[in-house]
Design brief:
With 100 residues, the chain is mostly helical. It contains five helices and no strands.
């Protein structure tokens, strides 16, 4: 997994807190923010509504399979991909039958 540089704005009080935490823990602001995001994702990934929303994004072709897999796990993602394939094949069959 590579790193991507991002540029975003944060409230100054959050930046100050991150800087203090970085100084105390002998790390840097980026590590503090990265750990905070990782903790956030660990909490939200267990939420059923969040998982359902991620699956919907995949089914609507808004996210790729690899990203789906990172959120819901390989086994569940494979099952969703198989279901999506079956649904797409069913839609194609229905379209073909409608043309007859």
């Amino acid at each position: 997994m590579g790193n991507t540089r991002v540029n975003f704005r944060l409230p100054s009080d959050l930046v100050e807190k991150a800087d203090v935490a970085a100084e105390i823990t002998h790390t840097n602001r980026t590590e503090i923010i990265k750990e905070a995001l990782q903790h956030y994702f660990e909490e939200i990934e267990d939420d059923e509504r969040f998982q359902e929303a991620v699956v919907e994004l995949y089914l609507d072709d808004q996210i790729e399979f690899g990203l789906l897999q990172t959120f819901i796990g390989r086994q569940d993602a494979e099952a969703i991909r198989a279901s999506k394939t079956l649904l797409e094949q069913g839609e194609e069959l229905a379209d073909d039958l409608a043309e007859l």
